[in-house]
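Student: Hello, beginner here. Can you help me understand the protein record under this note? Any guidance would be welcome.
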Amino acid sequence: MDTLETGLTRAAVWRGDRIDIVEVPIPAPGSGEMVVRVRLATVCGSDLHTVSGRRQAPCPSVLGHESVGEVVAVGADAPARVGDRVVWSVTVTCGECDRCVRGLTAKCRRIRKVGHEAYDSEWALSGGYAEHIVLPLGTAVVVVPETLDDSVAAPAACATATVMAAVERAGDLSGRRVLIGGAGMLGTTAAAVCAHRGAHVLIADPKRARLGQAMSFGALPDDGENVDVVLDFTGATQFIGESLPRLEIAGTLVLAGSVTPGPLLGIDPQQVVRQWWTITGIHNYEPRHLREAIRFLSRTVDRHPWPQLVTDPVPLALIESALQPAPGCKLRVAIAP
């Protein structure tokens, strides 16, 4: 029976020590809101950190913030139409605070986040590990072209869009040597983006299999020489500390992986001054980065083996088995609610 006819859907509710599959009422969408049937969700590393206790998050909640789905109901002035296949932003923003007005919606003062809200709040269906999700007003939505498989489109909502934000902070990459820290989903994606923008791309990762896979996305193994840009997706202070002295004059270090507390990084301010270094960071992303992510994937869908990075999907009933590190060279586990 169609869930919309019954007014119920199924969601995986994380309760700290277990995950329960429960039936949840589907609310009628309000102004600017949409109800989306989730076609595929991929498991981001931050959700693995949440369920393992390494990351603080509201509990109980419906996790999942990398998803693609089909719009099945809309309120007035919604950003997409019924029948559209879409991806959506991690952040839900007010559009009115001083940060939003400045174009820093990623740090909205009243921010809410997909897959990071309490289940017992007014936004119960807030995550992608469910048959349906409600997208409130303030969610950026991008229609997905037919050329992109669900497995390629879903990671755009977090991994690919975050890479776009990080690469933007690095500036013009044409002809520059770029070192990427980490050959996970973000690092491998970053290799493809940087190569597409004309960079000579190096990548470092302790897992040789992942390094080999990154070669299919435009990277070469790190050669230990100096570079113009370092993009860090590891969050490892050791890697950051070892790569910083390799920056050329006017080089740039972009930090994107340091999202949990770790050892402090020792930096000599004199060296930063004399070398004209730029050290910057990004967290979350802007709506333009999500649009850029889908455009980039569309342009490179025949150039790189994107589907190989994602596992075959498991059903929602087996979600606990999916909330584990991806096997082998796979970088994302997929769930098909």
In short: The chain has two domains: 3-157+305-336, 166-281. Residues 166-281 form a domain with the Rossmann fold fold (CATH 3.40.50.720). The chain is about 25% helix and 25% strand.
